[in-house]
Amino acid sequence: MAQRTPSILKHLISGGQQHLRSSCLRRSITYMPRPANHGSKPVTPITEDGTPRPVTLIPGDGIGPLVTGAVEQVMAAMRAPVTFEKFDDVNGNMSKMPEEVMDSIKKTKVCLKGGLITPVGGGVSSLNVSLRKELDLFVSLVNCFNLPGLPTRHDKVDIVVIRENTEGEYSGLEHEVVPGVVESLKVITKFCSERIAQYAFEYAHLNNRKTVTAVHKANIMKLADGLFLESCREIAKRYPDIKYNEIIVDNCCMQLVSRPEQFDVMVTPNLYGNLVANTAAGIAGGTGVMPGGNVGTEYAIFEQGASAGNVGKPKMVEKKRANPIALLLSSAMMLRHLQLPKYADNLETAVKRVICEGKYRTKDLGGSNTTQEVVDAVIKALDS
Questions:
Q1: Which positions fall inside the Isopropylmalate dehydrogenase-like domain (predicted)?
Q2: Cβ distance 186 to 171 under 8 Å?
Q3: What is the value of pTM for the model shown?
C-alpha cells in the first residue's frame, strides 16, 4: 500500500476543509487510498488545476443513460475539469467488452459506468465481473450512510463495505461433473486476502475510522474463510490504533438489520460483500442513493454502489424517473480519486442539500419528481 507523502496528504485535506453551512450537510464520503505498484506512489497522477481529465463513460443498460446523463449535466454546470469518452453501444448481453472501450479505460485509467444487465443462467458471463478481473479492480467500496432529511428505520448509519472483488465464489470456475451435478469452486488466496485487508485498514486510518470488522463463515468453510481471517488478523497487527472485530456472515446480516450503528468499516470476501453492501444500502435509504467505486493498482471504475435493481424497471426508464443520487455521489468519489476535492465537496454538498430540503425526490425516496427535475435542483444548489 502506498504511503502518501505529507505534501500530497496536505493537498488532499486542504481541499476538504470547507465547513458545510448546515449540520444536515455533513460530508460522509472521504478519501479512498490508492493501491500502488511496489509500495511507491499512486499510479494515477495528480490532475493539474484547470486541465481537463479524460474519463471513460459507459452509460449502460436501463436507467444507465438517464443517470450518467445527469452526471454529465452536473459536471458541465460545475465546470469540472473532466471530459468524457463516451461509449453508448455497450450492453450487458455482450459476450465481452469491446476492445475500443478497454483501450479507452486503459488510457484514461478512470471510468464512470451505469448499470449493465447480468444475464441469469446460460453461458454469457457478466461484463461487470469481467471488467473487474481484467483490470484487477480488487477493491469494491460501498459507503452506506444516512442522508440527513431522508427518514429511515435506523439513525447513525455510516458503514463502509470493502469487498474483495476478484476471487471467491466469483472466480467463475464451474463445470458439470455429470448430468445434474454441477461443481462450483470458491477460490481464496492469501495474496488477495491480505491486500483487501490492507486496503480496509488503510482506508480506516486515512478517514479516522475506529473499527474494522471482518465478515466470514470460517466456522463452516474452515480452510477458505479461515485463510481470509488469518490474513486479516496479520494485517490488523500493523494498525494497533484501529479496533479489529470478526463476525460470522449470518449473524452479521441479523445485526445489520437490528443494530447497524455498531458497524464502521467492514472487510469481506467477494460474495459476502455483495450481500452485506446491498443489505446496508437498504437500511440506509435504498440502492438509489448509495455510491460506490471499484479500485485496483492502476485503474478505477465508479458506479452505483448497491447492485440490486441497478438497471431499473422499464416503466421507470419510460417515465424518466430514475434516481440519479447514487451515481452523482459516485462521481463525487471519482472526483476525489482524481484529486479534485473542491469539486467533489461542491457536488456532495449540493446533493445533500437537495435531499435535506425534501422538495425534489424520485419515487423510491417518497417523491414524484423526474430524473431531470432532481438534476435541475442539484445544479441550482451548486455553490448556493
A1: 54-378
A2: yes
A3: 0.87
